[in-house]
Design brief:
The complex is a heterodimer of chains A (189) and B (377). Chain A has 189 residues and is an all-alpha fold. Chain A has 9 helices and no strands.
Chain lengths: 189, 377
């Protein structure tokens, strides 16, 4: 019985065999980052996948380690915002939304107002914010829809919301030609 | 109004305007300090210094802007201008979207009589994802000294957006008392990294008292840091009877200081640096179509002339999986769990590229990756 328990523990803490594909310079720090994340209760699959992506693209070891470290931090922030009950897929989507610039408060509110999976609303939020839509405007749109709209409908609506918010967004990201545009050049009488 | 009640009203308005914690409003403030050379039509060129503070405040459907300019010419004469604008939008998500806006402004130069204007405009937008148009009508009054006259404008404009490039074409007809003129104008804007470029060309035609001719302006904005930018602009602009400015030429260099850093889009699609198309040229990324399939998704990549097409992503442990050819397309069926997934394609063993047809995001490795979202069943 003790032997079985020890074997189970050994298997649980053994490095992921897929990480053997990493460059020898990247493997030990990545394994350590994965182990640290596991110890903190964070999902590790996306960390392994980020490292494998770097290996597939021929990225240098330092870049792979930095990418995994950054993702681990993002996952931690996502869990702080979404709560301890968030499933790994929600944490992945939440991390992407936070990285894109979504405010953590929006994720917390989304958890409160929407029943069921948050994967698609978080992905839509990340998409809008990453497109340059002001974070508060994007969050307001997603939060307004989240309580009552299905995932498929939300994905169909994303395109319409993105263009409509972009139309009213700051000039840096949208088409906004109004009367002030011509006189907006500094030093021009 | 009693002082206490006035204070209550002011606090209520300010409280609504200022973004509360977790609120939905955004405010931005800039100050431009510029050195210019200005030559009004019929006058000698003159150097000038200008300070322009600007404040914008936005909620999802409301935008308010305030702007002032203090210009001091080398002669010692001063020009002061102010402009306030406000817009209200109807709810998003419909085929048409309405906008009601108003603007008022005033200006004065040296000891000359002041100029003011006030306009109200109704605009109807027809926005699509990458193009659209609007039509607008405005009415109001302008005044130069004691002379006040009605003003009206009618505008039709169309816009097109491709990646970071935006192009706008417009036709505007304005009447002020006995003066009437039409402007045909085209604007192009683009941004790359720290640089933002804008160019305007136009022509004033069918004019009665408003002048005629061709005009054009350009500006380059270079972001120097989170809070500062250098703006170089110049060109020729026409007489603006609505707002009281006469035609002229100018060249200006300004330092722009922002109260908060400007955000730039992070997921503008861009292929990896060595992206190569199937025919060996630097072609755009192949387009991928994602369709549900029993227990997973069917991926269809649209590329002709290829000898092989591979897909890789977190659902393949980033090992390449060859798609099978069918006519001009390449297909494969994958078991993909619900959630967000990262995906890339490569053609003929070339570099991994984020495919068109899905959202892109920076991949942490100097390029981009496609983002595939599979909803929960």
């Amino acid at each position: 019985m003790i032997l079985v328990a020890l074997l189970a523990v050994a298997q649980a803490t053994a490095p992921d065999p897929r990480l053997e594909r990493l460059d020898p310079a990247a493997r030990p720090p990545v394994v350590q980052l994965v182990d640290s994340a596991r110890a903190m209760g964070l999902p590790t699959e996306s960390l392994v996948q980020r490292a494998l992506e770097g290996a597939a693209k021929g990225a240098p070891a330092a870049s792979i380690v930095a990418a995994v470290r950054r993702l681990a931090a993002d996952l931690g922030r996502a869990r702080d915002a979404l709560g301890p009950d968030a499933v790994p897929a929600e944490l992945d989507a939440g991390a992407a939304a936070l990285r894109a610039g979504a405010p953590p408060a929006a994720l917390t509110t989304l958890r409160r107002v929407r029943r069921g999976s948050l994967i698609v609303p978080l992905a839509v939020l990340a998409d809008l914010v990453g497109s340059g839509v002001p974070a508060d405007s994007a969050a307001a749109a997603v939060l307004a829809l989240a309580p009552s709209i299905r995932d498929v409908e939300l994905m169909e609506f994303r395109r319409a919301v993105e263009r409509d918010i972009a139309l009213g967004a700051p000039p840096a990201t949208a088409v906004r030609v109004n009367a002030t545009a011509r006189t907006a050049r500094p030093g021009r009488p | 109004m009693p002082r206490r009640r006035l204070r209550t009203v002011v606090c209520a308005v300010v409280g609504w305007l200022l973004p509360a914690k977790g609120g939905l409003a955004q405010a931005s403030a800039t100050v431009d300090v510029a050195l210019s050379v200005v030559e009004y039509d019929g006058f000698q060129p003159s150097a000038a210094g200008a300070v322009t503070p600007a404040l914008t405040w936005e909620r999802p459907r409301v935008a308010i802007g305030l702007r002032g300019t203090y210009l001091r010419f080398e002669s010692g004469n001063r020009s002061i201008q102010g402009l306030a604008t406000g817009s209200w939008f109807t709810a998003p998500g419909r085929a048409w979207r309405g906008e009601i806006s108003a603007q008022t402004g005033a200006s004065s130069y040296a000891t000359f009589s002041g100029f003011w204007h006030a306009l109200a405009e109704a605009r109807l937008h027809r926005p699509r994802e990458r193009h659209g148009f609007w039509i607008a009508g405005a009415a109001g009054r302008t005044s130069f000294g004691a002379l006040s006259q009605p003003a009206a404008t009618l505008t039709v404009a169309g816009w097109l957006r491709r990646g970071a490039l935006t192009a706008v074409a417009s036709a505007n007809r304005a009447t002020l008392g006995d003066t009437a003129y039409s402007d045909l104008e085209a604007t192009v804007r683009t941004a790359r990294g720290a640089l933002a470029l804008e160019a305007v060309v136009g022509a004033r035609v069918w004019s009665r008292g408003g002048g005629r001719g061709v005009y054009g302006e350009g500006s380059v904005t270079c972001t120097l840091g989170g809070h500062t930018a250098l703006v170089v602009s110049g060109g020729r602009y026409p007489t603006d009877p609505l707002r009281g400015s006469i035609a002229g030429r100018y060249l200006s260099a300004a330092l722009r200081m922002r109260a908060r850093p400007e955000r730039r889009p992070t997921n503008v699609p861009r292929p990896m640096p060595t992206g190569v198309g199937a025919n060996g040229s630097s072609a755009s990324a192949p387009r991928i179509d994602v369709r549900p399939s029993d227990g997973g998704v069917r991926l269809i990549v649209d590329v002709s002339g290829a000898r092989s097409v591979d897909v890789a992503g977190d659902f393949t442990d980033w090992l390449p999986v060859a798609l099978r050819p069918t006519a001009d397309r390449w297909e494969g069926t994958f078991s993909v769990s619900s959630g967000t997934h990262r995906i890339a394609v490569r053609v003929d063993g070339g570099p991994w590229i984020a495919p068109a047809g899905v959202r892109h995001a920076p991949d942490d490795y100097g390029g981009a990756v496609g983002i595939l979202v599979v909803p929960s069943p």
